[in-house]
Amino acid sequence: MAQATSSPPEPLAEAAAPARRSYSADAAGLGRLRAGVFVAPALLLIAAFLVFPALWVLYLGLTNYRLTGLAAAEPRFVGPDNFLGAVSNPAFWNSTWLTVQFVLGSAVIGQVVLGFTIAWLLRDRRGPLRRLVEGLVILAWILPSAIVSFLWVALLDRDGGTLNALLGLPGFAWLLDHPMLSIIVFNTWRGTAFSMMLYGAALGNVPPSHLESARLAGASGRQQLRDVVFPHIRGHILTNLLLISLWTFNDFGPFLITAGGPDGKSEILAVHVYKVALQGGELGYGAAVSTVILLINLVVAVFYLRLLRSGR
Amino acid sequence: MALRKVAAVLAVAGLGLTGCGQSSGDGGGGIELTITQNAIAGGKNAVAAKHIAEWVIPKFVEAQKAKGKDVSVKFIPSGVDDEQYKTKLSLDLKSGKGADVIDIDGIWAGEFAEAGYIKPLAELVGPEADSWDGWAQIPEAVQGLATYDGKRYALPIGTDGRVLYFNKTLFAKAGLPADWQPKSWQEIVEAGDKLKSAGVPVPIQINAGTAMGEATTMQGVLPLLAGAGGEVQKDGKWTGASQPLKDVLGLYQQIYGAGLGDPKLQQEAKGRDKSFQQFAEGKIGILMEGDYFWRGVVNPKDGVAPMADRDQTVGYAMIPAKEPGAGIRGQDFVSMSGGALRTVNPNSKHPKEAFELLAFTLSSEALKEETKDGNVRITPRADVNKEILAGEPLLTYISEKALPLTAYRPPVAVYPQVSVALQEASAAVVGGTAPDQAAADYQKKLEGIVGGAGNIIAP
Amino acid sequence: MTPRFVLGRIGFSTLIAVLLAFFTIPLLWLATAPFTSDPTYEVRMPDFTWENFQAVVEHPYALPSLYNSLVLSVGTAALVVVLAALAAYALSRVRLPGRDALLYALLLLSSIITGTAAMVPLFQLAVELNLIDSQLGLILILSGGLLPAAIFMLKDFMDSTPKSYEESARVFGASPLQIVWHVVTPLVRPGLATIAVWSVANVWGNFLMPYLLLSDVEKQPAAVITYTLYTEGGQANLRMLSTFGLLYSIPVVLMYLFVSKKYGFRFHGGIKR
Description:
The complex is a heterotrimer.
Chain A: H1 2-6, H2 11-16, H3 18-25, H4 31-60, H5 70-73, H6 81-87, H7 90-121, H8 128-142, H9 145-156, H10 162-167, H11 174-177, H12 179-204, H13 208-216, H14 221-249, H15 255-258, H16 269-279, H17 283-310
Chain B: H1 2-18, E1 31-36, H2 46-66, E2 71-76, H3 82-94, E3 101-105, H4 109-115, H5 121-125, H6 140-145, E4 147-148, E5 151-152, E6 155-156, E7 162-167, H7 168-173, H8 185-197, E8 202-205, H9 214-227, E9 233-234, E10 237-239, H10 243-257, H11 263-267, H12 271-280, E11 284-290, H13 291-297, H14 310-313, E12 314-317, E13 319-320, E14 333-337, E15 340-344, H15 351-361, H16 364-370, H17 382-388, H18 393-402, E16 406-408, H19 415-430, H20 435-450, E17 456-457
Parallel strand pairs in B: 1-2, 1-3, 8-11, 10-17, 14-16
Antiparallel strand pairs in B: 3-15, 4-5, 6-15, 7-11, 7-12, 9-10, 13-14
Helix pairs in contact in B: 9-10, 9-19, 10-19, 10-20, 19-20
Chain C: H1 2-24, H2 28-32, H3 51-58, H4 62-93, H5 99-113, H6 119-128, H7 135-159, H8 164-171, H9 176-187, H10 189-204, H11 208-213, H12 222-226, H13 238-264, H14 266-272
Helix pairs in contact in C: 3-13, 4-7, 4-10, 5-7, 7-10, 8-9, 10-13
């Protein structure tokens, strides 16, 4: 993808001047064969433990396979039945819509903006302040889920919750009256660390000399951002957006604090899959919904790619 | 230099790995057995794990040695969420793996049997299974837990029963008797009204909604349904929007619509935990639960919401039918029961020895050992129960009064989905939907789950 | 200049304070509950007991499980970083046919494999390959799921490094592997550190796959043991959970601080100096 950033695929132009281009890109003189050898081990692992089982999931989506019962002993091929069942189910569409809100709110707006802000604020800092902020953000990210659910119940509980105590709002039921807002804020808190780290590393790659000359030329912080930093980390921003969106689509973390409730008001697709596949044992249907998520992700990925190209 | 560091890290990781390759080879020609439960030392069901590891295994090995057999047994602890334990067990059994002796929840028996994950004991072990001397001690109803399609698939490990708990201190405040025993639903509601007038924050807690999961079905909808004379499944056909179901949903409406219960508590992800804490803090008047509540929740010694004065403060009563005689089988009172099973893995290489181990864990000697030191529960054996329940008023009460009247859930594969549909119906009513509407919605969902209206009894 | 500077400082401090509050307040429970003798869902002033820590130390599987977590996550991170770096470098420098499409397809598939529905195929695959109950097998499986995203991210870093150093190294006769190791790796070190931390964090909290693939409790990581700290009826043992949770998270935070200090951002300053 970032290759596309720096040089959008232009097969014709490339074919016209192959020798020069490939030399300057392949600076170490790797050559295709050795490049293949470099890629092979990763691809091998991916083929065995990712592609193969993933295709298997796609196949399961076409069967009535269950974890137990008769359908576990003799699963039947049912074709598109699971998909038809899903799209004719209003609960599925409700989940899809909630997922869109969840991804836009917590990933695109929450994590990306907050992650970048933190990375930018701390870019020149060393010492305890930076360590403190980074340590806390990372802590939110790596805490085991079982613990996190207690942290957030303790925070948002309507009776003894810390937030209500701080705001002086006893009895305000955040998780019940504003479940989507709650899980969006929760997921922002939980996942900002990744964006912060990635942007931190990307900002570290912006040549300080460029920033220095911009500063000497009298550019304000905002101008530096726009003219020097963004062009340089554009690829990282889009990669980050893409990855964060994909992961958030598949994240069933909110299950831990609202269990999809109340009455399905926060049952995003990943929670839906968790409920039908693990709790209900309907693996065929769960696989079919996973496939639908994959298709939505595909649309999202294409959208980002378009964005990437149109901006050039 | 950095290279060396990475190499060192890799080597350390590798070292950690080599120590843990395949381990269980047949050491010295003896028989190796494994036994698994959803129990683990230091965690879930720790006492059971300790009992197996420290008492059952050494005793069993010793007894086998006396018979001239070289047997070794290994305990494989688990101790996670029941759904995850079930997932893992299913995957293991499906791939021909798993421990020789396994524990399952009674409600899984049907789906496991249908999937071929478990087999009838007589087929697997031989005639020893049916001639086991313990059968004579196990009541018919409890044997039914382990029976599917007329065949015994396992041995029952125990059973339980549901009653109404109430807080006597709050009852005294509301002018209600300490030996309260309602004879109809109406009397429960009346008690709730009095508690409410006396300022009790949550007069009645009867689980509703999807957040509490199976606890809603088992400690809410089903006992009430039995009290209205209904069964979720009867003679292979499912009950749809029947009058009993409408009655049950009507009671929910009566309780949660009139402020006798806390509707929000039913929606919260940790609502059940919180209801326990609130009961222990004296904020809930009446609560419907199983004997687990007494043993594991308000237990002053090691409960999750201990009440130091449990024995004085917490009262209990039978769950009444809607009206006297309106319950299933014309009963005045009802209960619901579940229970776990223990069986031999069909993939076991030594099914006969595995069965011996299984039977040994359910011998009266082993059960007495397991339940000593305040760890009493209702065992499947009448002879053991008679002895160990003597000092336990609540367990005696359940065992003598509730169990003869109790009912069980249908052990079939679609039950979990039906259960969710029942939870959703109760959630809808608590949220303000009319009972008739919620019942009709339930029937519609039920048709989708059980394969059409043909499998549903016409209302 | 000066008023603007002062305003900037005030703005900065306010923003940092708000951020700190946002990330700290949810953690308060973790700071108090482990030191309380009977923690509930409320944040309360602790009575500063050490009993909970003692209970965790005496727990037969708690501390060993932390070691298992370490083995799994360090093993996975090492494998992912090395393989992804090699692949990302090759893909960044050499235009292999169908590269972009392949990367996108793998990335999309990687999102399906983290879902709940993939557990059956992964389990049966592990059975067939005899990788059940083996930590190495689990590392391979987890790595397979993480590699596409890792390659994807690293390729960005590889793309944005200047190529002149490699050319000069090549002029001096260095082999491609040497170039990757001595020239490219230092340049993308922040990226490698990011991937490593990301991999560790992913494995550190993973419950379902380790639980399904490792039967032997002595091989199971802390994420699995955490889930056992409940009672028969599913009620949480808050004393153990909070305390173990604290012990469980500290190593990763320390690791992050160490990595970020040591590898994160130093070299770049060096090369431009």
